[in-house]
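Possible regression after last week's pipeline update?

I re-ran a chain I had predicted before the update to compare outputs. Posting the input and the new output here so someone can diff against the archived version. Not blocking, just want to make sure nothing changed silently.
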Amino acid sequence: MQQLNWTESVFPVCTLLILLLYHVHYYFQVKRSPMQTAIGITQYLRTFWVETVMEQKRDILAVQTLRNWVMASSLLASTAVLISIGLLSYLFQQNRIIELPFSAYLIIGSTRNLDVLKILLLFLNFSFAFLNFTLSIRYYNHVNFMINVPLDRDDAVTVGYISRILNLGMLHYTLGMRAYYLAGPLLLWLFGPVWMLLGSVVLVGILYRIDRTA
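New output (post-update):
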């Protein structure tokens, strides 16, 4: 049984710390200075979009826009679940899960066990993406009905409430996309831990740019 190289232990931990520290920093930046982040700017502008649609009764615009978002989330959710099924199929066809005891996933002592862990992490990553995209579809469907209700119809129907529901849908969409981005370093890990670390550095650089421009 081939033992692990030290890089297989150190570099994945460094990758995790790099991605974790970046997202913790970005989270607090969104809280402190939302208008300097893409998430804060888009949330602010979506509130005005909801207000404009409801006050000017632009029903067709609302339906077409929400339809586009639902279609995008559906495509990404379908892709994520297909990749997840493919990863599970690969593991079961190779009889790798059946042959290895559960303790093998907790104590990684060989390259054989680590290969299984890499595939399982990819599966969990795309399953997380699928969950978030389906939740975003759920919130979009709620907004699709509520945004067409006249403002004077009920006190519960407010621009602020509908904007919060819409922003929840967009938050889950963003989390789903983050899972797709994270798949890059995880896939590079299959080629070696050095590639994984380099991929995480490149990913953080790309995220730093797109997270600060709407």
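Follow-up from reviewer: compared with the archived run. Residues 111-146 form the longest helix (36 residues). Marking as no regression found.
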